[in-house]
Amino acid sequence: MAAHNNKILESHLEKFLDHLIHERAASKGTIGTYRADLGEFISILSKEKLELEGTQDDIYSLREYLRIVSETKNKKGKHLVSQSVSRKLSTVRSFLRYLTNQGIFQMNAARLIKSPKGAKRLPGVMSERVAAQALAKPDLSTPSGLRDLAMLELLYSSGLRRAELASISLNDINLKDGTVRVLGKGNKIRIVPVGEKAIEAVNNYLPARKELGKIQDKQALFLLDNGKRMTPGAVYHIVKKYFRGIADSGKAHPHKLRHSFATHLLDHGAEIRAVQEMLGHSSLRTTQRYTHLTIDRLKQAYDSAHPRSE
Fold first, then answer.
1. Contact 70, 62 (CB under 8 A)
2. Which of 59, 92, 232, 253 has the highest local Cβ count within 10 Å?
3. Which of 106, 91, 8 is nearest to 56 (CA)?
4. Measured distance CA(53)–CA(109) in Å, rounded
5. How far does the chain reach from its first CA to its final CA, in angstroms?
6. How does pLDDT run across 163-193, given as a tens digit for each residue?
7. Helical H segments across the chain, by residue range
8. Is residue 84 a contact partner of residue 134, using CB atoms and an 8 Å limit?
């Protein structure tokens, strides 16, 4: 019976992913994660001979799946953190809800299982000093150095994701008005302010853009050294390059610049709703993570300076 049921799951997996693409405008990254998680889910069910019937009794098989996932170790020999296990369970819930809505299952038993609780990790943030040091590193006598500074300034100035940065076209950025139009998660378009330093850096880069090899994508704002459009992977490596060797920079990556953008705005009194809109968060709760970082920094400043703090 288990093998038969797993064939049903396999036969509807691609239909479910198509549903996410067309009905929810899911990104390629989201689809890739769902495909990997559900492929693992179906594989575990088959290997352990676990059955799903689309009834409340499925809860026993689902709990066994969750136990196996929780005990699985990664390449470094460590168990998955609770957030990763919760994500996998959430993916399974979505898939089984789809099967229930399609009339293939009678009910979604996964909704009866609570996600594992764990300490919420706050996003990593670099100091303003560390950010300034990295932004001073690019060699502005070269086209690639001018490009890299413009990219770093935009990431830090506007809180963009690396994929958003790579997707910017020339007609998306308005240097006169100081705004950039980006295509975010779920194919949602938003307009984000661009700071004066970033505007200056982009203006300095544009004349040198044609020197980055034969331009193959005339609309792309940022180009690779071979003239092709910048890629999210290249953005990642460029950011790491400029933060390498800077004390207290930690594990630097594009998303850390995004975290720092949000935290530094709140540190300087920005209204949280405005920060939410600039980041493109659909939920205020997601943006509120950064207020915890700001409060922690205030507490540290208090403890180190106030005579009655001890």
1. no
2. 92
3. 106
4. 10
5. 66
6. 999 999 999 999 999 999 998 877 888 999 9
7. 2-23, 28-47, 58-71, 82-101, 128-135, 143-158, 162-166, 196-205, 232-243, 254-267, 272-279, 284-287, 289-305
8. no
d(CA 187, CA 31): 13
Residues 6+ apart with CB under 8 A from 120: 83, 289
Please give the structure tokens belonging to residue 298: 């205030």
User: What's the rounded Cα separation, in Å, for the pair 190 and 180?
Assistant: 8
Cβ 58 vs Cβ 50: under 8 Å: no
Which amino acid, one-letter code, is at 255?
H
Residue type present at position 141: S
Using one digit for the tens of pLDDT, what is the confidence trace for 100-109? 999 999 999 9
Mean pLDDT of 202-208: 96
For residue 72, what is the DSSP state?
-
- In this predicted model, what pLDDT tens digit does every residue of 5-52 receive, in sequence order? 678 898 999 999 999 988 877 888 889 999 999 999 999 999 988 889
| 81 compared with 101, residue with greater pLDDT | 101
Choose among 136, 114, 17: nearest CA to 62: 114
Amino acid at 280: G
Within 10 angstroms of residue 282's Cβ, the number of other Cβ atoms is 12
Of 196, 156, 161, 163, give the one whose Cα is nearest residue 280. 161
- As a whole number of angstroms, the distance between CA 95 and CA 17 comes to 9
180: helix, coil or strand? strand
Is residue 97's pLDDT more than 50?
yes
User: CB under 8 Å to 156, separation ≥6 — which residues?
Assistant: 131, 135, 198, 257, 260, 261
Token pair 């092709």: residue: 228
- Residue 168: alpha-carbon gap to chain centroid: 17
